[in-house]
Amino acid sequence: MLMLVMSIGFVGCSDDDDEPEAPKDAATAVAGNYVGKLEIIGYVDEPERAYVTLTRIASDAVTIKISCEAFDMDMSPVNLNVTKSGQSYSLKSESSKSISGNVVSNTLSVTFQNQAGYTYKFSGEKS
């Protein structure tokens, strides 16, 4: 009887119900790989599959790298500042490069301009 009582006590003390810890900073919260569609704004071409990687470089900064085979794009990493506002995160280039976006519920939206003056929009989910 004593063994039965002791085994029930051990089963009830399991730590399986622990909540996952929230990210400690904004950059950690948004860092990761995103898969989605890239389109050129103002053109009727269909959006193409693209990949974005956000890599944490500081508590409030990430690098962004965008790849899209259909548009022959393999963008060099660009530094972005990350700020949190409620449940969303804003991304803005540290330099004069025209790139900005936001992350809401693991969905990334980014708009940027290339050197030829075309404006692109990416929208995708964290994978």
The overall strand count is: 9
Helix content: 10-25%
- List unreliable stretches of 5+ residues: none
Distance between the termini: 50 Å
Strand order of the largest sheet: 1-2-3-5-6-7-8-9
DSSP strand (E) fraction?
A: over 45%
Rg calculated over all Cα atoms: 21 Å
Task: Describe the main β-sheet briefly.
Answer: 8 strands, antiparallel, barrel
Mean pLDDT metric: 87
Instruction: List the secondary-structure elements in sequence, H or E.
Output: HHEEEEEEEEE
Task: Name the structural class.
Answer: mainly beta
Q: If helices are DSSP runs of H or I spanning 4 or more residues, what is the number of helices?
A: 2
Overall form: globular
Topology diagram in text:
Elements: H1 2-12, H2 26-30, E1 32-40, E2 48-58, E3 61-68, E4 73-74, E5 78-85, E6 88-93, E7 99-104, E8 107-113, E9 119-126
Antiparallel strand pairs: 1-2, 1-9, 2-3, 3-4, 3-5, 5-6, 6-7, 7-8, 8-9
Task: Give a written overview of the molecule.
The chain is 13% helix and 51% strand. The protein has an 8-stranded antiparallel β-barrel with strand order 1-2-3-5-6-7-8-9. The N and C termini lie far apart (50 Å). The chain has 127 residues and is mainly beta. It contains 2 helices and 9 strands. A hairpin with a 2-residue loop joins β7 (99-104) and β8 (107-113). The mean pLDDT is 87. It is globular. It has helices spanning 2-12, 26-30; strands spanning 32-40, 48-58, 61-68, 73-74, 78-85, 88-93, 99-104, 107-113, 119-126.
